[in-house]
Amino acid sequence: MKVILALNQAAGDQAAFNVFQQVIDNGARVLGLATGSTPEGLYRLLRESSLDFSAMTSVNLDEYVGIAPDNPQSYHYFMNQHLFNAKPFAHSYLPNGLATDPDAEVKRYDQVVADNPVDLQLLGIGRDGHIGFNEPGSPFDGGTHRVKLTESTIEANARFFASKDEVPREAYTMGIGTILKSREILLMAYGDKKADAVQKMVEGPLTTAVAASALQKMDNVVVIVDPAAAAKLQPASISKRL
Ligand code: F6R
């Protein structure tokens, strides 16, 4: 894992954009994408760029259970607004939050990822160390599954809803094992609320209690942090400063 400390969020977004540009220039075919506040600046840079995704495929990490794709709270909707409307891909896949047969849905999505091996997977990190919606305790070798969100995640995501009660309690997510199969992984983390999770991911023990710690020993992982998210890291943990 290589940790890049950016001067601020804008510098971090630019560094992340450069990683995207490079892997696309090198012939990447499949991008693994994330939602949430963290990638919004990167998606703006991608929208405003001359990059062309029309021959590429995207696969997203996760989707809430019980929410239709055209619901503004859904991750389908988020991706359309932040990227796909401006920069369509040949194929874009997300889990189906309205699937009536959860077992069939997780199998379908694992097959989607198996058929479209991810060249570059973008990740954010939850305050509890989750990646995708792999909450504490998720096995490092797990595939796509349906998950109950933790109280910490429900509280963190309540800002996107009228009230905390409206936040879905469950989601479909790629598993940690699914994520680890990606050729390259780029995790972004900004702000002081992420400082604990970042410290545990980078320096803490390898433990399923912190899903992101699964990335610690991988040499194909780049982490981009701003000073607030890096506040609890030892200087020696930082590979590069921008
Ligand atoms: C979103 C996802 C989550 C978020 C994480 C951070 O697709 O998989 O793991 O990346 O919850 O969310 P933000 O960026 O809103 O702080």
What attributes characterize this protein structure?
242 residues, alpha/beta, 8-stranded parallel β-sheet, globular, binds fructose -6-phosphate
Describe this structure in words.
With 242 residues, this protein is α/β, with parallel strands linked by helices. The protein contains 7 helices and 11 strands. It has helices at 9-25, 40-48, 75-84, 102-115, 151-157, 176-180, 195-203, and strands at 2-5, 30-33, 57-60, 62-64, 91-93, 120-123, 145-148, 170-173, 184-189, 221-225, 240-241. An 8-stranded parallel sheet has the order 5-3-2-6-9-10-1-11, with helices on both faces. Helix 2 (40-48) links the parallel strand 2 and strand 3 (57-60). Helix 1 packs across helix 2. It is globular and about 50 Å long. The model has no long low-confidence stretch (mean pLDDT 97).
What is the count of DSSP helices, taking H or I runs of 4+ residues? 7
Q: Which shape, going by the Cα principal axes?
A: globular
Low-pLDDT sequence parts: none
Structural class, please?
alpha/beta
Strand order of the largest sheet: 5-3-2-6-9-10-1-11
The counted number of beta strands is 11
Concise overview:
The chain has 242 residues and is α/β, with parallel strands linked by helices.
SSE topology sketch:
Layout: E1 2-5, H1 9-25, E2 30-33, H2 40-48, E3 57-60, E4 62-64, H3 75-84, E5 91-93, H4 102-115, E6 120-123, E7 145-148, H5 151-157, E8 170-173, H6 176-180, E9 184-189, H7 195-203, E10 221-225, E11 240-241
Parallel strand pairs: 1-10, 1-11, 2-3, 2-6, 3-5, 6-9, 9-10
Antiparallel strand pairs: 4-8, 7-8
Helix pairs in contact: 1-2
The protein binds fructose -6-phosphate.
